Structures are given as C-alpha cells and as structure tokens.
Amino acid sequence: MGSLTDKYCIVGLGQTPFMRPSNRTTLSMACEAIRNAIDDAGLRPDEIDGMTSYQGGAGGDSTTAAHIASSMGLRLNYATEMLGGGSATEMLIAHAIGLIEGGYCKNVVVFRSMNGRSGRRYGGQAPGGPVPATPAAAEGQFMVVNGWTSPAQLFAMSAMRYLRDFGATTDAFAEIAVAHRYHASLNPKALMRTPITIEDHHRSRWVAKPFRLLDCCLETDVASALIVTSRERAYDLKQPPVFIMGGSARTFTPSPAYNYSRPEIHYQAGHYARQRMLGTAGITHKDIDLISCYDAFTFTTLIQLEGYGFCGRGEGADFVKGGRLQIDRELPCNTGGGHLSEGYTHGINLVAENVRQLRHRADDACPGWAEGKHTYDRQRGCRQVRNAHIAACIGWRTETGGSSLILRSM
User: Fold this and answer.
1) Suppose 111 and one of 225, 231, 263, 389 were both cysteines; which one would form an S-S bond, judging by CB atoms 3.0 to 4.6 Å apart?
2) CA 304, chain centre distance (Å)
3) Of residues 162, 182, 294, 308, which has the active-site annotation?
4) pLDDT one-digit tens code per residue, 320-357
5) Structural domain for 84, as ranges
6) Among this protein's residues, is 344 annotated catalytic?
C-alpha cells in the first residue's frame, strides 16, 4: 500500500453533452463542464485554486486554464496545460495529488475540452484548412513515409502482428465492441445506443485492416472535468467521496518513442506498470469489481487487459470470449459505453464513469439513481454495477506507454 493511499478523493464531476458538432468554442464548453463539476461537489468557485488539463496531438486543440480563470472569475495558485492524450487523465490526477500534498493547492480541477469532430481531427481537417503535415522525424519517420495519417493506420500494424503471433481472430475485437455497445444502450448520454452483435461487427466496413468501423472510437465535441481534494475536505462536500488508492503515472516501456525495432511491437507498457498499480493500492486483481480500459480501438482494450495482468500474454481473445466484459459478468468494462459507443474525450469520461459507479449513482433510467437507488434491471435501462467497490482505470498512450488509477467507494 502506498503512502498516499486513501488520502485524496475525487469529489466533483461535470460534463457537456457529447455533440457532433458543438458549434461552440472549447473555452465555452470547458467553463460549462467545470461549473457543473463545482456544483456537483458542492464547492464555491472561489474554492478552486488549482487547474490542469491536456492538449491532444501537437497541442492547440483545447483552451487554457488562464482563459478559464478569466472567464469564471477564479484566482488560481497553480495552472498548467500538458501535452498528452489517452493516458493523461490518470497521470494528471496523480499530479493533482502531489500539488495538494505539497501544499500548493487545496482543490484541483482536471479537465479536457475538445472539438474532436468539428475542430482538429486526426488524419482529417482543422478549422481553416488541413492539419499541418507530420514531420518525417522522430516517430514520424516511421509513419509519413508509409502514408500513415491516422491512429487507425498506426495501431493496425500492431494489431495485425498480434493476430499473427497468437493465432487470434477479429472475433475478439467484436466481443469488446459488443460489450461496450451493450453498456451504451443503458446510458442516456451515449451517442451510439443501438445494440450490436458479433455479426454486425464483422459486416461493418473496413477502415484499416484488421480494423472495421465498429473497432474504432467515435469523434465527438465535448468537455469533461473532475475535482480532486483531500479526504478531510471530501467528507464535508455534497457527493459520496471516491478514494484514490494508487496507480501508475505514464509508465513507459524501454524505447518509448514509437518504432518497429522493438522485439514485440504489441508489448504494452502495462507489463511494466501493473505491479506498481496494484502495489500502491494494496490490492490484487481479484479485488477489482469493474474497470475502464482505454478503447480508442477494440484492440487497445485487448492488449491492455494482458499488459495489466487480467490475463496472460496472448490470452486476451479467450479472456473476452462469451461476454466476459459485460455488466453482471466477471469484469464489467467501460460501463458507460466507452470511446467506442458513448463518446470520445481522450479518457476522462472513462474515469468519470467509474466514479459514478463507485458513488452508486450511475445516471441511467432508474428513477432513483441520483440517491443511489437502483433496480439493477437491465431490461429497463439500469447500468449500475452491483456491489461496486473497487475500480481500475487504465489509460493508453501507445503500446509504449500508459497510466492507471485505482479507485474505491466509501
């Protein structure tokens, strides 16, 4: 167990709807999400004194803490923006803990605001014209010479090699897509709520082999925010506190710059992070009731399950077979629908969903969800996990990096 286990909590959540398009600025959306998080926590705006966020891609796809502070009338003791994507939320929560522990701040907001559909798009357009060309240097030297402009093309190479190395098929990808869509069908906020089957997955069009359309995340305009504070303050606030037990903050493999000279290109950084994740929290895999597992693609979820030790190397396809990741089964995963079906926020919505589950306030069709009263009737739209006590949040950078977080309920 780590020295900071259970000393800090997530106490506020706020979000805009998932939109396509938003017809709004990232500043406007960020202010709405942060205001909602402050209200959710039962804090006053003048009690927020720290703020941190992340920019995707080459940066410049979001807004800044300084602009938000000016717009909302906040006076911050600490503010920064970091470059990062899928592994940033869990990392920035660790960062917030360090700031509070060191006495720099008392209540820290972590947010992400992005026009990922109508603004800067991977491999697509940006406002005013195309996204600037990727330079043929560093990681880019392995991409642009092959015409790769999107993550689907990049990670498809690892996915093809994985299928070859372990004799798996795309049935494994379909199992993940079906599970996450099932959860989205229970989530009123999700964009894609129509259930799908394995056959539907296999009939969807190719994007970059072996990825079909239903293997790929959505593109959305959205902002989301959460608030971290100490457990002493948390007990005085509005919502049941969710305790931060431990995790790992952006752990790398050897040679973390993306390249193809590594012995196994699909060997995921979780292999190096999982002992730290579990050790700082003082738990084992058997203690975990549900997970969020970054699903930019179905494949990224599959190899993270292996990397973080939920199954052995090459065993992911068998592990997910038969709906194992679905609610009421052994390891509910991405219970809001994830990036594949709820909406894409570069990971912060996955952490927020786990917080809702651990509060026992998953916002679904149950009339009493806001008071934690659930029917657990899936036919009527309840998505609350029974006896949810400990959740693992697993964030993706690439195969060569990632972050994680262990949370628990009161």
Assistant:
1) 225
2) 13
3) 294
4) 999 999 999 999 999 999 999 999 999 999 999 999 99
5) 8-121+219-234
6) yes
